[in-house]
Amino acid sequence: MRRSIILLCLILCLIAFWLMRRAFGTKEPVSGRKTTATTSTSVSSPTPPKVEKAPAARKPLKIASKGKVRLKPGESAVLGYWEIAPGMNGMAIVTPETTPEGHVKMSAKLLHLSDTAVSDAEAHDLFPDIFDFENYSAIGPERLRELQTSLQNTRGVDMLSTPTVVSYPGQQATISIGNSNDCMLSLGLQADPVAEDGGYDLSLDLQRQE
Predict the structure, then answer these.
(1) Cβ atoms of 114 and 88 closer than 8 Å
(2) Structural domain contains residue 135
(3) pLDDT of 85-138, one tens digit each?
(4) How many helices and strands (H and E) does the chain possess?
(5) Domain for residue 61, yes or no?
(6) Would you give the distance in Å from CA 34 to the centre of its chain?
(7) Which residue, 126, 136, 122, is CA-closest to 71?
């Protein structure tokens, strides 16, 4: 009996000691890894606006032509040239004559003709072949009257100017005309007398630019 009491006391003491140890024991801190969150900010450059390439400007049209026509008295020189514009052709008609004072009077007609007008006026012979640019011709008074009548009665003919210039034999005279489209047409004329028949060697210098 006594032994039992002693064992019970001993057990109670052990329990009390365990409880005291647990009650007064120090808690070890729980160490954790500190995590630092880093926020990265990405700044993107704005996309530049797309710039459309401007269309290439059309190259200005420039025509230059020089030629000479031998004319008998009363004849006229005709310069026909293709395509001053798509479907449009140019023509210059010049008739020189000697004045009583010994000067050279040159009556000119500058005009544009559509392809259809060239055909309707039956003027194909006054224009260049397909592989040429210009055609210089000499026509007599009768052919000139027929041509002028045909041009007057044909649609698609634009008479630009009908100037008359007077110069000395062998001296150049220039006719210049312009329009609202900033096109400039210049025609240089020089009549050199031909002693054999009283006619002229008529030089024509055409310059057209826009």
Answers:
(1) yes
(2) yes
(3) 888 899 999 999 999 999 999 999 999 999 999 999 999 999 998 788 899 999
(4) 3, 10
(5) no
(6) 71
(7) 136
Whose CA is closest to 184, among 203, 204, 206, 200? 206
Spatial contact of 96 and 143, defined as CB atoms under 8 Å apart: no
- What residue has token string 């002028």? 148
pTM: 0.68
φ, ψ for residue 119, nearest 5 deg:
-70, -45
161, 177, 189, 169: which is closest to 95 by C-alpha? 189
- Domain coverage including residue 106: 68-209
Handedness of CA 76, 82, 85, 87 (dihedral sign): positive
Locus of tokens 């030089």 = 203
Nearest to 172 by CA among 147, 199, 191, 153: 191
Token pair listed for 171? 């001296």
Nearest to 173 by CA among 182, 163, 181: 163
Distance CA 188, CA 172 (A): 7
Evaluate whether residue 187 is within a structural domain: yes
